[in-house]
Specification:
single chain, alpha+beta, four-stranded mixed β-sheet, three-stranded antiparallel β-sheet, 5 helices, 50% helix, zinc-finger, zinc ion binding, calcium
Length: 270
């Protein structure tokens, strides 16, 4: 009988559990605030039960404050990062600009140095060529002679008729070539133009029976009957160019005056 009572109790308990199971609602069919299933159940629990607890309210307020401060901190960090990125980009742009300006300044400096060097070289070359040209002009302007009485050399400017016992500074390291020996009064043999009476004659007009220099002959015989006059050339000395040539050297193939012939042919093979 005791065993039967125990069985009855177990059977009675199982029947109560069955009744409770019949009262349970499946979780998948639970609906709350537009949610279904377990999320709806948890939401209902938080809203209707947990939210009434004082500690929950305090925790919720604390978390809300933290959320606000976290948002502000996030915005501040984002702003700082943006400012840092902008600063970095500006610095890189400034570095590139300064680098380009330095390169341009360096190129200008190098170009300026090259131009200055070129100008200096051109100035030196122009100065050298100018001095050389002046010396060449001085060579053509001065004539070097040897005085027959003293046997000393001197330089004469035919344009000014000024003579120097020392070489003119314009000649520099150059000279006027071989010196011409001035003849003595007994040796001098010159033919002067019959018109201007200052220039050495270069031709003799047969009809006029008079010597002329090149300029006077051209002016006096350019028209009229004189245009058809015949003339003979006066062979002047190739060395002094103002005396009439009296001797012809078959070896040199040139005409010399007496004084120049003696001076040029006094030694050596000549």
């Amino acid at each position: 009988p005791e065993k039967d009572a125990g069985l009855a109790t177990v059977e009675g308990g199982s029947e109560k559990e069955k009744e409770k199971d019949k009262e349970k609602i499946p979780i998948t069919s639970f609906v709350y605030a537009g949610l279904r299933g377990r999320p709806a159940l948890v939401t209902r629990f938080v809203v209707e039960i947990l939210s009434t607890v004082v500690d929950y309210k305090r925790s919720a307020e604390f978390l809300d404050t933290k959320r606000t401060s976290a948002s502000a901190l996030t915005r501040m960090l984002i702003k700082d990062n943006v400012l840092m990125l902008q600063r970095f980009l500006r610095n890189r742009a400034a570095v590139r600009r300064i680098t380009a300006e330095l390169a341009a300044h360096k190129a200008q400096k190098v170009a300026r140095r090259r131009n200055n060097a070129a100008k200096a070289m051109q100035g030196l070359i122009r100065g050298f060529l100018g001095r050389r040209q002046i010396k060449r002009m001085a060579q053509a302007m001065y004539t070097k002679f040897i005085d027959g009485a003293t046997e000393r050399e001197y330089w004469c400017n035919p344009r000014t008729n000024v003579s120097h016992w020392t070489k003119p500074a314009l000649l520099g390291e150059f000279d006027c070539g071989m010196a011409t020996r001035m003849p003595s009064e007994e040796e001098r043999f010159t033919v002067v133009c019959g018109q201007c009476a200052t220039t050495t004659a270069t031709c003799f007009c047969i009809q006029c029976d008079e010597p002329y220099c090149t300029m006077c002959y051209a002016l006096g015989h350019r028209a009229g009957h004189r245009k058809n006059h015949a003339h003979l050339l006066v062979d002047n000395c190739v060395q002094c160019e103002f005396q009439v040539g009296t001797r012809y050297c078959t070896s040199c193939k040139d005409t010399y005056c007496d004084s120049c012939y003696k001076h040029m042919h006094k030694r050596g093979r000549l």
